[in-house]
Design goal:
The chain is built from 23 helices and 23 strands. With 618 residues, it is an alpha+beta fold. It has two domains: 193 residues, Penicillin-binding protein 2a (Domain 2); 363 residues, DD-peptidase/beta-lactamase superfamily (Beta-lactamase), CATH 3.40.710.10. The strands form seven sheets. Strands 2, 3, 4, 5, 10, 18 and 19 form a seven-stranded mixed beta sheet that branches. α15 packs across α18. The longest helix is centred in the N-terminal third of the chain and has 31 residues. The termini are far apart.
């Protein structure tokens, strides 16, 4: 071997030795210096922590009848194992779960997941889907099947607007998020939370605290073993003021009467209605119906169809539907005239059937002349001309003021179900605001005096109005949740009636108004025939309100019973139901019949047109 060759061999040997030294040094660095770091990385790929969803609190009616509970159901989720999401797995899940691939990828690309944590794709999957996933599990990467509690609405469509539903839709209402945060619940976008009703308002109490489970997975993301576990804490249970059987009966009564009305062919638009039954001495709601309803167990599948329906059953008409309330407003007009000293209960006013006042010609229903009337007889027969005069005497400012004293134009204070609207009180200020400053005319006061003009209120406000009259002037906060019980059976909240304010209306005036309402259901009154067979005396007011679009008027009733010692208030609004006697009054009468007797004899259905002719006024 010559010197040149020897030099080359030595050089190669040095290079090889240097490489081995470098590799050994690197290996020593990784094995010793970076041992803890790479051990953590290795363990992170092998182990992960999954959430154990806390069972959501159950909901019961006032008698302990279960309304909402949970049942076990399978949830499909997808995990990133470190190499990204597998395209073939996504395509397979898209097919079997009937979810667009783009929707899955959007969820992956969004902020709704963290690497190595499951991305929930679909809940409550069918046995057929479970079987298909299980058959192909060997080739699916990062797919998990887990058992989670699934919300089970035992009563289907009953009280759907009260109970509400859950979904992963984003909560954009800042007020709701702030209330949740104040109650100790921090919302994470994409979380499964209550979207409407009690499910939403009471989310912090119902949700519970999720637990954790540390698991070992293989390279396909499939479960190998279980390790440390932190058990979830179930949510609190809610007990409502709602009477489930009464709620069902009210829903059935409304459905039956509206079907009968439409069958006659006169009122084809009578498709929506609302009713509220409450305790006037506490504000406790015994029944609150918005018709039509929908099945809470199918809301996810049917949502698009429900939105597209005309009318859609999704809005809660009892809280969100606003209507002119027609002659049921006449107690406000009487209150304004009595309190302002413009009218005495026995002052006589003559009704000729048609009259010209404030440069406008007005008439009673069918131009019927009622003759000489005092307040009691005028309210009993619902004489428009009497109340046109009373409204003009009191003035629009007094009408607006006392309407607000009865709770109109503001939310009633119900917090258990979100979405209550304020309604509108007709006033010169409101007209100026919506018309760009137009003045108020006396002729408009006459319309306002019988519940028309800009007046527009909710059925809950109508019930609250009657409750204030019945109990002597106290506005109680309406409520639905009576008590909250934790998972150990301890009562953590027990709600008492809350008086929000006292109406600035004299007891003498309220007494006069109550007597007038009693005479509405006595012989000669507009509500006598329908309420005459009940074992208690009813005080109330019938009403019909023009819609302004050539449809049949809305049909209304509000009242309470027994007159001597009120137990319940009932308010009913039937959209385009016709005269009060045709829809709202028979519904209210059957509700009271069931409440006080436990049965409905059906005499009201035997001849819907029997009895004296209705004397309803707009």
């Amino acid at each position: 071997m010559n010197k040149t060759m020897l030099h080359r061999v030595r050089l190669i040997f040095v290079i090889v030795i240097g490489i081995f030294v470098l590799l050994s040094a690197r290996l020593a660095y990784l094995q010793i210096v970076q041992h803890d770091y790479y051990l953590y990385r290795s363990e992170s790929n092998r182990f992960t922590t999954i959430d154990l969803v806390a069972p959501r609190g159950e909901i019961y009616d006032r008698d302990g009848e279960i309304l909402v509970t949970n049942r076990p159901g399978y949830v499909v989720s997808l995990m990133d194992l470190g190499d990204g999401y597998d395209a073939d797995t996504i395509a397979f899940l898209s097919e079997v779960l009937e979810i667009e691939e783009e929707e899955i990828r959007s969820a992956i690309d969004g902020q709704l997941y963290m690497r190595y944590l499951p991305l929930r794709l679909k809940s409550d999957i069918t046995p057929e889907v479970i079987a298909r996933i299980a058959e192909n599990r060997w080739k699916l990467k990062g797919v998990n099947l887990e058992v989670h509690p699934i919300r089970d609405y035992r009563v289907g469509s009953t009280a759907a607007h009260i109970l509400g539903y859950m979904s992963q839709g984003t909560i954009g209402d800042q007020d709701t998020l702030e209330r949740w945060a104040e109650a100790g619940y921090e919302y994470e976008p994409g979380a499964l939370v209550g979207q409407t009703g009690i499910e939403r308002s009471w989310q912090p109490w119902l949700s519970g605290q999720d637990g954790e489970q540390r698991i070992e997975i293989n390279n396909l993301g499939q479960l190998v073993n279980y390790y440390e576990r932190k058990d979830p804490v179930p949510g609190h249970n809610l007990y409502l003021t709602l009477d489930l059987e009464l709620q069902r009966i009210v829903e059935d009564i409304i459905a039956r009467h509206l079907e009968a009305i439409r069958a006659k062919g006169k009122n084809p638009d009578a498709r929506r209605a609302a009713a509220v039954v409450m305790d006037p001495h506490s504000g406790a709601i015994l029944a609150m119906v918005s018709y039509p309803s929908f099945d809470l167990n199918r809301i996810t599948q049917d949502y698009a169809e429900l939105v597209a329906m005309n009318p859609s059953p999704l809005p809660n008409l009892a809280l969100q539907g606003t209507f002119p309330i027609g002659s049921t407003f006449k107690m406000v007009t009487a209150t304004a005239a009595l309190e302002e000293g413009k009218l005495g209960a026995y002052d006589i006013s003559y009704c000729p059937g048609t009259i010209t006042l404030a440069n406008d010609t007005k008439s009673c229903f069918n131009k019927r002349a009622h003759g000489a009337l005092n307040f009691y007889s005028a309210l009993a027969v619902s004489c428009n001309i009497y109340f046109y005069r009373a409204g003009l005497a009191a003035g629009i400012d007094a009408l607006s003021h006392y309407a607000r004293e009865y709770g109109f134009g503001s939310p009633t204070g119900l917090t258990d179900v979100p979405g209550e609207v304020a309604g509108v009180v007709a006033s010169r200020e409101y007209k100026a605001a919506v018309t760009g400053g137009e003045q108020w005319y006396p002729a408009e006061t006459m319309s306002a005096a019988i519940g028309q003009s800009y007046n527009s209120f909710t059925p809950l406000q109508l019930a609250n109005y009657a409750a204030i009259i019945a109990n002597g002037g106290t506005h109680y906060r309406p409520y639905l949740v009576q008590k909250v019980v934790n998972s150990e059976g301890n009562v953590v909240q027990d709600r008492a009636p809350e008086a929000l304010r006292r109406a600035e209306i004299g007891e003498k005036t309220l007494s006069i108004v109550r007597e007038g309402m009693r005479r509405v259901t006595q012989p000669g009154g507009t509500g006598y025939y329908r309420f005459s067979h009940l074992p208690v005396t009813v005080a109330g007011k019938t009403g019909s309100a023009e819609t302004g679009d050539n449809r049949e008027p809305h049909s209304l009733f509000t009242g309470y019973a027994p007159y001597e010692d009120p137990e319940i208030v009932v308010a009913v609004v039937v959209e385009c139901g016709g005269l009060g006697e045709e829809a709202a009054v028979p519904i209210a009468a059957e509700i009271m019949e069931y409440y006080f007797t436990g049965t409905i004899k059906g005499v009201l259905d035997s001849d819907a047109d029997a009895g004296p002719p209705a004397d309803q006024e707009f």
